[in-house]
Please model this.
Amino acid sequence: MQHVAQLNPRHEQATTAVEVRGLGHVYAGRDGAVPALSNIDLTVPAGRFVVIVGPSGCGKTSLLMMLAGLRTATSGTILCEGRPIATPDPSRVGVVFQEASLFPWLTAVENVEFPLVLKQAPRDERRARAEAMLNLVGLAGFGGRYPHELSGGMKQRVSIARGLVQDPPVLLMDEPFAALDEQTRMTMGHELLRIWEQTSKTVVFITHSLTEAVYLADEVIVMSARPGRILDRVPIDLPRPRTYQMMATDVFGALRERIWHQIRDVQ
Model:
């Protein structure tokens, strides 16, 4: 069964950003082959915010790493912007991990521009681009700070800026706010939506928080226990821009409960 992300009215004639067909993955375990993913079919139109949820160990991160070209699938195909992505290609796909993973000896702006250093971009060009990304994520004036001088939320903002600095059309995010306290996590989610609205990126986001999933997404993809497969696609028909007050509505609660019951029943 093909699962297609819910259309966002911002992009009425969206093209396909990510297309996955028959994806499967098997790990070579100590006691033999361990199936991690089974027959994943997924289409994400450009400009959508898609969130993936599922029980621990269902293969969410494995799927994301394959979309990033960081892990090889056992079977099936992945297309990004219409072309296979067998190896990392930051010009098409940016990645933000759970840990900010900043270089402690580099300043914030130097961390953001590091991917451009690897590409040997001219110094003035990469510095201007990095500073623009810091401005976008709300860190204007903090470019000269070192990681130890930044809060957890600020470090993640730097990580997001680094993921965006090469202007990839697709941004993959693996539980980027999981280590933050609840208040900071909510603030970062709201800020991420602001950045998404400004940039029109395609976002594929993994989380264990069902509240976060419903708050952020155009559509939530629900995965089964291992071997991971897609159980359901839940369109999130809440108006944008999203507000914190929506979390107290019956509609929000019903969406969250629909997702929770499916995850609970497969664990």
Notes: DSSP finds seven helices and ten strands in the chain. The helical segments are 60-67, 108-118, 123-136, 152-164, 182-199, 210-216, 250-266.
